[in-house]
Amino acid sequence: MEAGSPLRASLRVALLQVGLSAVALTGFEIALFLDAGSGPVAALVAYSLTGAGFVAAGMVAWWRRPSGRIGALLSLCGTAVLASAAGNVADPVLAVVGTVLAQLPIGVLLHLLLAFPSGRLPDRRSRLLAVAGYVVTLALPIPAYMFGPLPGVPPVLVVADRPDLVSLFARIATVAGFVVVPLCALVLLQRLRAADRPQRRVLAAVSAYGIFTILFLTGSAIVARLTGIDPLTQFVVQMVVLAGVPVAFLGGLLRGGFARTAEIEELGAWLGATEGGRPELRDAVAATLGDPSLELLFWLPREHRWADADGVSALLPDPGGPRAAVEVATATGTVGAIVHDAVLLPDAELVRAAGRVVALAMERDRLTAELLAGRAALRRSRARIVESGDRERRRLARDLHDGLQARLVVLALRAGRLAAGTAPPLAEQAEAVRADAEAAIAELRGLVHGIMPDLLVQRGLPAAAQELADRLPLPSTLSLPGDDRRWPATVETAGWFTLAEGVANAVKHSGARKLWLTVGHTDDVLTVEVRDDGAGGAHLDGGGLRGIADRVEAVGGRLHLDSTPGGGTRLRAELPCVS
Amino acid sequence: MRVVIGEDEALLREGLVLLLQGAGWDVAGVADNAPDLVRLAGEHRPDLVLTDIRMPPEHSEDGLRAAVAIRADRPETAVLVLSQYVHRQYARELLADRPAGVGYLLKQRIADVATFCRDVGIVARGGTVLDPEVVSAMLTRARSDHDALSLLTPRQTDVIALLAQGRTNAGIARRLGISEKAVVQHVSRIYDVLGLAVTGDDHRRVLAVIRYLNP
Question: Chains A, B: CB contacts under 8 A, how many?
Fold first, then answer.
C-alpha cells in the first residue's frame, strides 16, 4: 500500500529535497565559519549542526505523520537555527539576515511546544501565546539594530542612533520574555497534568524537556549576568540544551506520539482491496488517523442504541472529555461514530473526512453488528427457554417424588399390613393390591428418572454417568474427571441427556457389544462422549438426536456425531461454561 | 430393642411406627427432619436408626448425612436407610467406615411387611442388607472390572446377588426354591471362582461378597 500511493511517493520526494537543502545550507554555513567566522569556530559549527538535527527530526516526524504539522514546525525551527547562525558569518548580507532572525528559533520552539502533539494550536490561549512568542523574538529586537549599530554587523539597517530607545526596547523585550515563557511553561504543565496515562506517555518526554528548555534559555541570561560566567560557556551550554530538543521529539516519536499515519486516499485504496486479505475497518481507520485507541461504534436504529462491531451495547463519550466522537452518516442516516482520543487527534474535520470515506463500509459493518446483536438475543432467548424447561422438569420430578410416589408407598404399606394381619382370601387380595402398588411405584420411578435423574440433581454429571453405566445391559468403560466440580444446571442437564440418548441409541439400534462413556472438562468446556462398536449409520436428523443437538446448541455448545456404517458411533457434546 | 425413626412424610412415619411397634420394637423417638434425628439418636442411644434419605431442611441427602454422622458418633448404632431411589455410590458411602449393621433399601420394600421386619432385625443385629437394585448395579459394574464373574452360571449369579443382599443360606434356598444343600454347593463354587476366603459365618460371607463387588 505504501509503495503504491502517489501521495506518499510525492511526500518522499519533497522530504528528500528539504533534507538536501538543509544539508547544503548547513555545509555552506560551516564552510563560511571555517573560512572566516566571527567567534569560536567549533561552537558555531556545532550550532549549525544543531539546526540540521532539528530539520532531520522534522523530516522523520513529517514522514510518519504527513497530516500533522509537527514535522513542518520542527523543520522550520531547524531552519531558524541555521538562519540565526548566519549572523556570525563575515558576509554582510548573511550577517544582516542572521541578525534580524537571531531570536526566531526561540519563537518557533514555543510554537512547536504549544502545538505538540498534533501540530495544531488547540485553543485560543495557546494561539495567543504563540503569536506573543513571535512578537517577542521577531518584533521587539527590531529597535536593537535600527536605532544603533551592533558589533560585527554592517549598519545597513540603522535609521537613527538612539541608544535610549535601544535600551528601552531591550528592557521591554526582557520583561515580555519573562511573561510569555513562564506562561507557556504553565500551559504545557497544565496539559500534562490533564492528560490520561497513555497520553502522558506520549506527552511527558517532549513537554517536560520543552518546559525545561524554554525556562533555561530565558533564565540562563540572568544566571550568566549574576555569576559572571563567560559568554562562550553560556552559549555552549544553551546550545547543548537546544540540541536536546530534537532528541526529546524523537523519544516522543518512539513512545507512540507519531504513530505512522496514512492518508485518507490510502483508506480509499484499502476499501477497494479484496475482501479476503483485508484487515478490519477499525484498524484501517486507526492507522489512517494515527490513533491506536480509536473505536468504531454502530447505530442500531431499530433498537435505538449504539453497539460495537460484535453488537454489544456501547455508549458515546461525553463531549468535552478525553474521548471525542464524530458521527458518520450516509444518505439514509446515521450509521455509526468514530470515537477517538481528543488530545492525540484534536482535528474533528480530519476524522469527519475519514468518516465520509468509510461511511459505506461502516454501513455494511453496521448490518453485521445488527445481525450479531440479533443472534446474541436469539441465543439468550433459546438458553432461557431450555433453562425454564429444565426448571419445570426439576419441579415436576420433585412434585412426583414428594407427592404421588410417597402416596403410593403409603398405599402399598397399607395393603401390606392388611395382608399380614388378615386371613385368606382377603389376605391374597390385599397382597395383589400391594404388588400392583409396588409395580406402579417402580414405573413411576422410571418415569421420574427420565424427567430428571435424582442423582444428577444431587451429585452432578459424573455421579449420574456412573449410575447410567451401572445399569447398562452391556459391558462399558467409563472415564470420569478427577474432580467433582459442578457446572451450571442447564449445562449438566444437556450433558446428561446427550449421554442418555447416546446410550439408548447404542443399546437399542446399534447392536454394539461394548460402550465407552466419557465425561471430561477443561477450565471452561465440559465434554461428554458416548462411543460404541456397533453398526453405525446414525443421523443427527433422527428425532432423539435432533432434540439433543437443539438442547446442546441452546447452551452455546456443539454436538458431533461420527457414525459411518460399520464403523461404530461416536456422539460427543462440547459445552462451554463461561457465562 | 430401641429404634429412632426419621421420616418427613406424616402418613409414612405413622405407618412405620405402627409396623415396628407391631414387630415388638420400642420406638424411642420420631423426627421429621435431619437435625432432630441426630439429636434424638444422641439422646436415646437406640440400637437402630431408620431414616429416609430425602428430608428437611435441604430436602436432598440430609438423611444420609445424618446416618453417617450418627454412626461416626456411635459406631455401634445400626442404620437402615430408605429412599425412593437407590444408588451404588450411596451404598458405598454407607458401607465405607464399618460395613456392619447397615441397611439400604428402596422405600417401597416396607410394604412387604414380613420381609421388611426380618431385614430390620438383621441390620439391628449387625448384619448387612442391600436392596436388590443396588446389588444388581454392583454386579453390572463388577462385571466390567472382573472377568471372573462371567465364569458363573446364571444360577450362581442369582445366588451371589442374594448373598450380597444379605440373605442367609436358608433365605436363599427359600427364595430360589432349591435345597439348602444346593445353596451351600453354589456358594462354595462361587468362592472358588472369585478366590474368596471360605467362612461359615453368614455375615462375614456377605461382607466378603460386597467387598468383592464394590471395591
Answer: 88
Q: Which residues contact A61 (CB under 8 A, 6 or more apart)?
A: A68, A70, A71, A74, A249, A253, A258
Structural domains in chain A plus CATH codes: 6-257 (1.20.1070), 278-386 (no CATH), 460-576 (3.30.565.10)
Q: Which residues 6+ apart lie within 8 Å of B208 measured at CB?
A: B196, B197, B199
The CATH number covering residue B66 comes to 3.40.50.2300
B53 in Cβ contact with B83 (< 8 Å): yes
**Cβ atoms within 10 Å, residue A229:** 13
What's the grid cell of residue B92? 458405598
**pLDDT on residue A277:** 46
The C-alpha cell 388378615 sits at A422
H helices of A104-230, in order, are: 104-115, 124-134, 142-146, 163-194, 197-227
Residues B149 and B52 in one domain: no
3-state helix, strand, coil in chain A (%, to 5): 65, 10, 25
Give the distance from residue B58's alpha carbon to the nearest chain A alpha carbon, in angstroms.
Answer: 11
Task: Classify A518 as helix, strand or coil.
Answer: strand
Instruction: For residue B89, give the nearest of A401, A407, A466 by CB distance.
Output: A466
CB burial of A288-319 (b: ≥16 within 10 Å; e: otherwise) equals bbbbeebbbbbbbeeeeebbbbebeebeebee
Supply the pLDDT for residue A356: 86
Out of B11, B107, B137, closest to residue A470 by CB: B137
Counting Cα atoms < 13 Å in the Cβ hemisphere of B140 gives: 21
CB within 8 Å: A475 and B89: no
Enter the C-alpha cell of residue A236.
555552549
Query: Under DSSP, is residue B31 helix (H, G, I), strand (E, B) or coil?
Result: strand
In chain B, what residues touch A457 (CB-CB under 8 Å)?
60
* The predicted structure's pLDDT at residue A273: 60
Residue of B85, B92, B105, B139 to mutate, interface with A, max A Cβ within 10 Å: B85
Contact present, B84 and B55 (Cβ < 8 Å):
no
Segments in chain A below pLDDT 50: 1-3, 259, 276-278, 579
Residues recorded for chain B: 215
Peptide bond into A154 cis (omega under 30): no
Ramachandran angles phi, psi of A527, nearest 5°:
-120, 135
User: What's the pTM?
Assistant: 0.61
Provide the mean pLDDT of chain B.
90
pLDDT, tens digit (0-9, with 9 covering 90-100), for B71-81? 999 999 999 99
A518 Rama sector, left if φ>0, alpha if ψ -120 to 50, beta otherwise: beta
Residue with cell 540540541: A243
Do residue B22 and residue B122 come from a single domain? yes
- The answer to whether B76 and B2 have CB atoms below 8 angstroms apart is no
The single-letter code of the amino acid at B204 is R
∠B44-B48-B49 over CA atoms, to 5°? Answer: 80
Task: Measure Cα distances from B97 to A222, B105, B129 in Å.
Answer: 94, 19, 16
Q: Looking at chain B, which residue has its C-alpha nearest residue A431? A: B112
Cα A549–Cα A554–Cα A560 angle in degrees, nearest 5: 30
